[in-house]
Write a structure and sequence with these properties.
Elements lengths: L3 E6 L10 H8 L3 E4 L5 H4 L7 E4 L11 H13 L4 E5 L9 H10 L3 E5 L4 H8 L13 E5 L13 H6 L3 E5 L5 H10 L7 E6 L7 E6 L3 H8 L5 E5 L20
Helix pairs in contact: 7-8
The structure holds S-adenosyl-L-homocysteine (SAH).
């Protein structure tokens, strides 16, 4: 009997935002492939009896290459194991979940998916920033900041992004923030557009840095902003009030 792979989203951190379905499936797992993004609280609560494989792809430091992760999942599944592939947030939003499903299906392995609460929405929400608001934004675009806008054929349409009126949410954008801000301004976005960067959202030591698009790159560099962080660009950022308590309080110890 071939095993089954469950592609599971952990949510953005903290066991409280892990879905009930995810918790049940994790409890029954024989093998768990994880990386650091789910956060310490979830990782330390993984069942003792399961074999745990650290794929360690945190901050660009690869312990297991993507193809190795996929090959190991196929191997364990062929041995009849019940496998969880645990991903931070939602597995299908910049989580390479799509690629893994392609490989697993091609190998004839059954896959089931458990969506997760994505950091793209929950991290801004946690500090009181709704990504849409009737007064400020009727659309939202979520993009990866991993793509360098200065390369010859950028993967993203910066002109369209700069001219859109909605909110822009950027994951994996810290390293490219200056280039991103420059590309948006060069394509017509106002330099006054407010930006918020939320580092380590929903963790005890979360931090919010704000500033206008023109100078946010320097402000972030000066503050020493580091990944993981969610960047929000747009008028909804005006709703952030540092004097207010978090909308999603930190729930850990
Ligand atoms: N699939 C994930 C995203 C994976 S990409 C999801 O749906 O949330 C990894 C990026 O997600 C990080 O670089 C960062 O931009 C963002 N991220 C994930 N968890 C975060 C957190 N707790 N705080 C801030 N950013 C986070």
């Amino acid at each position: 009997m071939t095993g089954k792979v469950f592609l599971v989203g952990s949510g953005p951190g903290g066991t409280g935002l892990l879905t009930q379905r995810a918790a049940e499936i994790i409890d029954a797992a024989e093998v768990i492939f994880y990386d650091q993004l789910p956060g310490e609280e979830i990782l330390s609560s993984l069942p003792k009896k399961a074999e745990k494989i650290d794929c360690g792809k945190f901050g660009g430091r690869h312990i297991l290459e993507q193809h190795e992760i996929e090959a190991q999942m196929v191997d364990r599944a062929k041995k009849g194991k019940n496998i969880v592939r645990l991903k931070g947030g939602d597995p299908f939003l910049f989580g390479r979940g799509g690629e893994e499903i392609e490989t697993l299906r091609a190998a004839g392995i059954e896959v089931e998916m458990v969506p997760g609460v994505t950091s793209a929405l929950a991290v801004p929400a946690s500090v009181g920033i709704p990504v849409t608001h009737r007064k400020y934004a009727s659309q939202v675009t979520i993009l990866t900041g991993h793509e360098d806008p200065t390369k010859p054929e950028p993967a993203l349409d910066w002109k369209l992004l700069a001219q859109g009126r909605g909110t822009i949410v950027i994951l994996m954008g810290v390293a490219n923030l200056k280039n991103i801000a420059r590309a948006l301004i060069a394509n017509g976005k106002s330099g006054e557009t407010p930006v918020a960067i939320i580092e380590r959202g929903l963790r005890r030591d979360r931090r919010v840095t704000t500033g206008p698009l023109t100078t946010i790159g320097d402000i972030a560099a000066q503050a020493g902003v580091k990944p993981p962080a969610v960047i929000v660009i747009g008028d909804v950022v005006w709703l952030y009030d540092p004097r207010q308590p978090d909308l999603i309080p930190y729930e850990g110890a």
